[in-house]
Amino acid sequence: MTRKILYRGAEAEIRLAKYMGKTVVQKQRVHKRYRIKEIDTQLISYRTKEEAKLIAEARRHGVSVPVIYDVDLLNGCITMEYLKGRRVKDILNTLKEDERRRICHLIGESIARLHEHDLIHGDITTSNMIYYENRIHFIDFGLGSQSIELEAKGVDLHVLMEAFESTHSKHPRCFEYVLEGYTKQLTGDASGVIEKIKEIVQRGRYR
């Protein structure tokens, strides 16, 4: 099987591969030599299973994510759909303001669907979103979790706010647009989460 490395990080290797005649993406978790082998194997298996579950749950609740074709718990590998779109990080700064607002609304709506069902992505940045077939697809749930806490949901959005400030600073209304989409989509009251974001920002200022 021919494989092409797309990204090599501390926790996982992302590669293009062939699976049952299809071009796919494989996320292969990396073994850590400093960990006891049995513990390392258990951790990799557990984290692989949890990430696959989060992706499946996100899809079940209407969030666009890659289709999972195979989960190999023994080797810590998730084989999933290859999305031929572009990272939101690479396109957001090039758009006209109306289109940028529309894209940010879509992002906010997707995050609301996650949070409504207590799904936390854990690393919401524009690098972890693929724009494909007029939808925002969320990728890389490796830091994700399930939580009913406002704190977790506030942190999730705060990560995105910081991503906008660092990568898309010339377009300061992006996060505002996301919150518009989030508030519109959320069936409950978004004010608690928004207040939590403000609280997190204040904490950062007083460190």
What does this structure look like?
It is a single chain. Helices cover 45% and strands 22% of the residues. With 207 residues, it is α+β, with helices and mostly antiparallel strands. The chain folds into 2 domains: 4-81, 2-Layer Sandwich (Phosphorylase Kinase, domain 1), CATH 3.30.200; 86-205, Transferase(Phosphotransferase) domain 1 (Transferase(Phosphotransferase), domain 1, Orthogonal Bundle). The strands form 3 sheets. It has a 5-stranded antiparallel sheet, with helices on one face. It has a 3-stranded antiparallel sheet with strand order 6-8-9. The longest helix has 24 residues, at 37-60. It is globular, with a radius of gyration of 18 Å.
Write the layout of secondary structure elements.
Elements: E1 4-8, E2 12-19, E3 22-29, H1 37-60, E4 68-72, E5 77-81, E6 86-87, H2 88-91, H3 97-116, E7 119-120, E8 129-132, E9 135-138, E10 145-146, H4 150-167, H5 174-185, H6 191-205
Antiparallel strand pairs: 1-2, 2-3, 3-5, 4-5, 6-8, 7-10, 8-9
